[in-house]
Amino acid sequence: MTHIIRCKMTLRSKGLVQGSSESLTRLHFGAVWSANPTEEDAIYGKYTPYGEYVVNVAADRAEHFEEGKDYYFDISPAF
Predict the structure, then answer these.
(1) pLDDT tens digit sequence for 3-28
(2) Which tens digits make up the pLDDT trace of 39-51?
């Protein structure tokens, strides 16, 4: 049986990676949370109350991500 976890995270910040030989952008995501039980963020906050994901990506790919916008992260086993 394959178990998958879906996290909902907000892009907290994005910026150029200093000193890299390539044009890279660092994306820093944080888990969502809400005290309002009728909001989707409250459900994600209950099951994944804390999380961070930081990744450096090619700058041309980072253009597709907006600070303050929410994204889903699916975690599943690699085969």
Answers:
(1) 889 999 999 999 999 887 779 999 99
(2) 999 999 999 999 9
In the chain, the number of structural domains is 1
Do the beta carbons of residue 15 and residue 56 sit within 8 Å? no
Q: Note if the pTM is more than 0.85.
A: yes
Distance CA 45, CA 47 (A): 6
Q: 54 in helix, strand or coil?
A: strand
H or E element that contains 55: strand 52-58
d(CA 7, CA 26): 19
Here the tokens at position 15 are 């910026």
Give the residue numbers spanning the domain of 27.
5-74
For residue 79, tell me if it sits in a domain: no
CB neighbourhood size of 29 (10 A): 22
